Amino acid sequence: MQSESKITEYLEKKYQERFAVEGVKEGSSLYPEMYGKDQIFAYPEGKPEMVFLAGESKKQDGEFYDRYPLAIWSSQLDETFRTGVEEGFGKGTEFKTLLYIEGSKYNGGMIHMDFQDYFENVNNEALITLNIGVKTAGEPEIEKYAEAIFKLMQQLKELNVKNYGVTVGFVDESEDISEYIRTSNVNNIAWSNLDAKVYGTIMVDNTMEIHSPSKLKQFYQQIEG
């Protein structure tokens, strides 16, 4: 696809790196200003955990955009929260830090900036969500995970961003969710829509009045089917 080559060329010229294309999302040739133009899912070669979205501007031919800085900061945030996730949910627990920042508030020149520096000195209007997959044999015992979720919410609060939260999907122990977790920053799929046996979810954010772990059980939502 010609657009795939154009977008990849733009990325490699801009960042002086090689990128692998994982997939293409076709836009609309008839109504690009309404539905957008072609986009690609790419990652820097050798780092598939840093998948991100890039594409051509729907308003201006020959202009492009990308979310590579967000992929870098998301990866840094993964390492920041890894200890807390594994202490609370078990070593090897699969998770991804989802990060959204409005496109006009960051640029490619920020890829060497640490996320803490960005939040403290440039812009803290971000949404950060820890997306965690927990494997279980049957319906989960929510009480076992309440303390861990509460502690992670406190750790997220310390980042001083506008919006943050934790989402936990409880899936059957037989399921392979590695690809879902790896691509969750770009796949836009809720746990309830995952093609897998999902028992339920807990989704909490900073707008909720959660002052102790005991409050978390009420946020468990069972998924039928």
Describe the structure.
- By secondary structure, the protein is α+β, with helices and mostly antiparallel strands.
- The chain contains seven helices and nine strands, in the order αβαβββαβαβαβααββ.
- The strands form two sheets. Strands 5-6-7-8-9 form a five-stranded mixed sheet. A four-stranded antiparallel sheet has the order 1-2-3-4.
- Helix 3 crosses helix 5 (143-157).
- 30% of the residues are buried.
- The model has no long low-confidence stretch (mean pLDDT 92).
Number of helices: 7
Residues in helix, %: 25-40%
**Average of the residue pLDDT scores:** 92
Give me the count of strands. 9
What strand line-up does the widest sheet have? 5-6-7-8-9
User: How does the helix and strand content classify structurally?
Assistant: alpha+beta
Low-pLDDT residue spans: none
What is the CA-CA span between the terminal residues?
39 Å
**What's the main sheet like?**
5 strands, mixed
**Beta-sheet strand percentage?**
25-35%
- Form type: globular
Strand-and-helix sequence, N→C?
A: HEHEEEHEHEHEHHEE
Radius of gyration: 19 Å
SSE inventory with pairings:
Blueprint: H1 2-15, E1 19-25, H2 32-35, E2 39-44, E3 52-56, E4 64-66, H3 68-89, E5 94-101, H4 115-121, E6 126-136, H5 143-157, E7 163-172, H6 178-182, H7 184-187, E8 198-205, E9 220-222
Parallel strand pairs: 6-7
Antiparallel strand pairs: 1-2, 2-3, 3-4, 5-6, 7-8, 8-9
Supply database-style keywords.
four-stranded antiparallel beta sheet, alpha+beta, single chain, 225 residues
